[in-house]
């Protein structure tokens, strides 16, 4: 059976989150390579899902879904995009059955036969009653995903919900656990399961009488919330890496637009026909904190080290294995190549030297603090009371350049000379952008 | 492990909510077990609780997905947890007042400042915790690093007073909001994805004019966040231009001129 693919939903939500509000229905559909009809259908499904999830909840964001997902971090720390992972479609009978079973097992041990009786009593009359095989199948599934446990002891087996994590903690401990999960899910990667757990713990606290506002004390500023969309592929890649297996996928390169002269090509969301079938041995994934983006690092026999933007991966499937020895060799080579990459660049190493200027004002030296915090493996040497030098050997300058530029006049590039010239040229052009402003002075 | 499990389905979750039931999956427990190795866990829990959690989770899969992840360009992590988080979140939760003693920027100490704690805020760039609070005497919205707080104690506040201050704080925050419009230079539209990702940490919307093929990002930010927005704009360099937001435009212009003077280039 083919695995249900959420590629369409992921791309849809990414476009809403990143370019929210920019496009008309037709433009949006065109860019995703779908019909307006499919656009409408997908949007309707997402809206229905969101409104079902928000029933009785305090949040009302997302009601203007078609306008784009506007992110206001002051409203809530609830990750809006999490609902992607709730999109698996199920028949109504199955949702009712699984809910009945799980509800019956919340605090009481029961056998398959007990549960079948409960289903017979409680299933809505217009729905078919499950037979014994169906109930056993459901129990097997629930046990596999870990939401129920089979108790020790012989047949007939007895089951109960696996709620220890909630039931065994006092109110105060549960609150500490909620906070911990909230903090870790928001500040570390990966985080989807953390957010799912956060949402369960929140309900558990409300059930114990805590006000919903209790869970709204923490805020996270400058958060790349769309990063969780790309975590969708993370576990497929993890499994392939653990088993030293190749991955096959259709790659929609977000960078491809660069090769085209036409500026009308929107590189964000290309039609599927523009994708390229790829096969690679996955080695590592890279998370770039500057943009909140993920990369897959792999090896291809023909092209060597490969880098793919995670958002371009679609129709991903596991392929044939390689030997552990080969995997280890490829991995070691990739790690060596990436060692001096600011993010993923593996161009020739360049020695960059920059002078940084301490702020004029007394008090905290925020320039120094930022260079120390973000300068990766670069080294700092004192130069004068007002300046210090920063040196780094880095693979190519394309990825470090924006960072150096972000310091504005607090950073002067000294070496290499050509990079210094580039900075001068760019600052001149940026100054030209605001020429009219200067004339107003 | 599959993030699109049947059990996560929205209809199941909503039906479970109706009966007050929970579905805690092995995936979530595995994630929790993995994160408990983090040093933050010892600051987040009392030793007894941590021991209990470790015991509950001992049979979960110990495979650590973080082994395959390489994090790049990350700010050094100063702190994930701060000992004051547990204390302060409980005062906030109870809608009580606070008396704070804290160190200030240029040296020196402010003692026994009365106020109302509003939110605990983590800055992902500075990787540090702040307390947002209302200083009753100075009628000002304050943001104080937890690192700088010397002492914090709870003070009694009536429910009416707490509601009034919360209302006031919401209005103060709203009044601090500023707007800017950033235009993406069409020659860089091929890098649209990268540019929009860079803005995805702000509250923003995007507009597109098909005729001119111009994208504009409408950013809403708090006044004290303008420095961070500016650093993002300098980060993107020639790709973007501010079209609305006079103060930001002035600052960018000034920044360019000052940078050029560092290189010995005058007007």
Automatic annotation (TrEMBL), chain A:
Residues 349-430 form the WCX domain. PROSITE patterns: WYL. This is WYL domain-containing protein.
TrEMBL record, chain B:
It comes from the Bacteria. This is WYL domain-containing protein. It comes from Cohnella fermenti.
């Amino acid at each position: 059976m083919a695995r249900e693919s959420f590629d369409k939903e992921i791309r849809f939500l990414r476009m809403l989150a990143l370019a929210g509000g920019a496009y008309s229905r037709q433009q949006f559909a065109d860019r995703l390579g779908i019909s307006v009809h499919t656009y409408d259908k997908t949007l309707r499904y997402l809206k229905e899902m969101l409104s079902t999830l928000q029933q009785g909840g305090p949040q009302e964001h997302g009601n203007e879904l078609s306008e784009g997902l506007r992110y206001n971090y002051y409203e809530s720390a609830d990750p809006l995009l999490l609902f992607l992972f709730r999109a698996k479609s199920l028949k109504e009978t199955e949702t009712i059955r699984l809910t009945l079973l799980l509800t019956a097992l919340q605090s009481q041990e029961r056998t398959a036969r007990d549960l079948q009786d409960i289903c017979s009593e409680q299933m809505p009359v217009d729905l078919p009653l499950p037979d014994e095989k169906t109930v056993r199948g459901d129990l097997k599934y629930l046990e596999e995903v870990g939401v129920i446990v089979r108790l020790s002891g012989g047949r007939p087996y007895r089951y109960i919900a696996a709620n220890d994590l909630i039931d065994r903690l006092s109110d105060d401990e549960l609150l500490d656990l909620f906070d911990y999960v909230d903090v870790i899910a928001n500040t570390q990667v990966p985080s989807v399961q953390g957010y799912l757990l956060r949402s369960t713990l929140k309900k558990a606290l409300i059930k114990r009488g805590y006000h919903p506002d209790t869970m709204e004390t923490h805020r996270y500023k400058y958060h790349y919330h769309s990063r969780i969309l790309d975590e969708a592929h993370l576990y497929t890649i993890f499994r392939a890496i653990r088993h030293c297996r190749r991955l096959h996928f259709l790659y929609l390169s977000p960078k491809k637009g660069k090769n085209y002269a036409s500026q009308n090509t929107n590189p964000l969301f290309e039609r599927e026909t523009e994708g390229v079938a790829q096969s690679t041995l996955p080695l590592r994934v890279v998370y770039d904190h500057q943009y909140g983006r993920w990369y897959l690092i792999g090896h291809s026999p023909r092209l060597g080290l490969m880098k793919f933007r995670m958002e371009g991966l679609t129709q991903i499937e596991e392929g044939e294995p390689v030997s552990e020895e080969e995997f280890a060799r490829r991995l070691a080579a990739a790690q060596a190549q990436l060692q001096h990459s600011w993010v993923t660049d593996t161009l020739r190493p360049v020695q960059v030297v920059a002078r940084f200027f301490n702020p004029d004002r007394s008090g905290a030296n925020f320039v120094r603090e930022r260079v120390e915090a973000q300068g990766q493996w670069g080294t700092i040497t004192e130069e004068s009371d007002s300046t210090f030098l920063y040196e780094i050997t880095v693979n190519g300058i394309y990825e470090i350049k924006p960072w150096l530029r972000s310091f504005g006049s607090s950073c002067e590039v000294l070496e290499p000379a050509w990079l210094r010239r580039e900075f001068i040229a760019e600052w001149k052009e940026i100054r030209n952008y605001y020429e009219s402003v200067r004339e107003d002075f | 492990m599959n993030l699109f499990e049947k059990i996560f389905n929205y209809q199941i979750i909503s039906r479970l909510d109706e009966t007050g039931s929970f579905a805690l999956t092995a995936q979530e427990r595995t994630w929790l077990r993995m994160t408990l190795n983090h040093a933050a866990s010892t600051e987040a829990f009392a030793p007894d609780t941590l021991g209990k959690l470790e015991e509950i989770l001992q049979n979960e899969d110990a495979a650590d997905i973080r082994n395959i992840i390489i994090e790049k360009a990350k700010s050094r992590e100063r702190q994930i947890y701060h000992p004051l988080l547990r204390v302060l979140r409980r005062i906030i939760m109870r809608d009580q007042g606070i008396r704070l003693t804290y160190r200030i920027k240029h040296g020196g100490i402010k003692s026994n400042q009365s106020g109302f704690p509003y939110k605990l805020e983590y800055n992902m760039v500075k990787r540090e915790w702040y307390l947002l609070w209302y200083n009753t005497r100075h009628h000002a919205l304050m943001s104080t690093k937890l690192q700088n707080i010397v002492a914090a104690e709870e003070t009694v506040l009536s429910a009416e007073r707490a509601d009034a201050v919360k209302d006031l704080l919401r209005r103060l925050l709203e009044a601090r909001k500023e707007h800017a419009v950033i235009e993406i230079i069409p020659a860089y539209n091929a890098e649209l994805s990268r540019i929009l990702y860079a803005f995805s940490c702000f509250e923003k919307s995007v507009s597109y004019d098909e005729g001119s093929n111009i994208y504009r990002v409408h950013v809403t930010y708090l006044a004290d966040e303008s420095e961070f927005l500016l650093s993002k704009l300098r980060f993107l360099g020639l790709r973007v231009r501010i079209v609305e937001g006079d103060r930001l435009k002035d600052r960018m212009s000034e920044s360019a001129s000052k940078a050029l003077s560092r290189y010995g280039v005058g007007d």
